[in-house]
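PROTEIN DESIGN WORKSHEET
SECTION A - STRUCTURE
LENGTH: 98
TOKENS:
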């Protein structure tokens, strides 16, 4: 993140080598614990079934971005609260729903 200068947009993060890898819920659970945020106030945004599986395993809502590695049908199986086809559509959804 530092190399791309994106680190300024994130307060905390987790990598797969810091805890169990997706779809295990550990990454989300640790971050929710750090921020003292209840699962009902947490939203996972992901573009793979691994992301959506992690959200389900952590008991949090998820929004699927459909331009990732996995097909829409596979993402839909995880019952995300929304499915968006682009980051612009995600932004619009977040402005209306977050």
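SECTION B - SEQUENCE
RESIDUE ASSIGNMENT:
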């Amino acid at each position: 993140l530092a190399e791309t200068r994106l680190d300024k947009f994130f307060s905390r993060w987790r990598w797969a080598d810091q805890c169990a890898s997706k779809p295990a819920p550990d990454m989300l659970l640790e971050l929710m614990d750090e921020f003292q945020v209840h699962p009902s106030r947490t939203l996972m945004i992901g573009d793979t079934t691994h992301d959506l599986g992690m959200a389900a395993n952590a008991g949090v809502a998820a929004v699927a971005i459909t331009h990732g590695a996995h097909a829409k049908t596979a993402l839909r199986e995880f019952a995300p609260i929304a499915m968006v086809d682009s980051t612009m559509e995600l932004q619009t959804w977040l402005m209306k729903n977050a």
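SECTION C - NOTES
The longest strand covers residues 61-65.
The beta strands are 43-46, 61-65, 82-84.
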